[in-house]
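Can anyone check this?
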Amino acid sequence: MQEKLKFETVDWEQVYGLLLELADKIKEMGFKPDVIVGVSRGGWLPARVLSDLLDNPTLANIRVGFYVDVYKTVSEPVITQPVSVSVKDKQVLVVDDITDTGKSLQLVWENLMTEAKDVKSVTLYHKAWSCFTPDLYARETDAWIIFPWEYYETVKKVGSRLVDEGKSLNAVKNTLVDMGLKETLVTRFVNELYGPQGND
């Protein structure tokens, strides 16, 4: 079943290119945030890079719980860690990696708008069926995006599911490579998770 799902694996260089595009768009729209808020965990690194590209060192964090596995979520997102700085009367740029259902970013946007002067949202990827459309996004997709900051997590979750289904470790490796992950990383992570028998 796992092989039938649609995946797109992106690397660091691709992510940086998308963030360059977003930084240009933010500048073009004339929005100058007082604070950049990364949605934990997927929005942390994009927020940090945008902080650099926009020459704005004021970074904050907000954490939302939603995904429990690949393609699996809890019914509704919950803010598990409130925004780490005051956003009262400030212009806020909130950053996440993707809007899938859109519920988590919508929740964050609504939460920040209770105190902020204005909130603009940006994501690397956006899905057309999302209930929330960010102000800016770099690409639209219908695939499950595998970001470079979650390669190990993906190997662990997908590998565990396939092993539970009775797949051999070689089959696990092949599936992960077919999903777009580099073979060297897959081999390393499978060996770490399952031991040297991962080479069999």
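Reply from J.R.: I decoded it. The mean pLDDT is 92.
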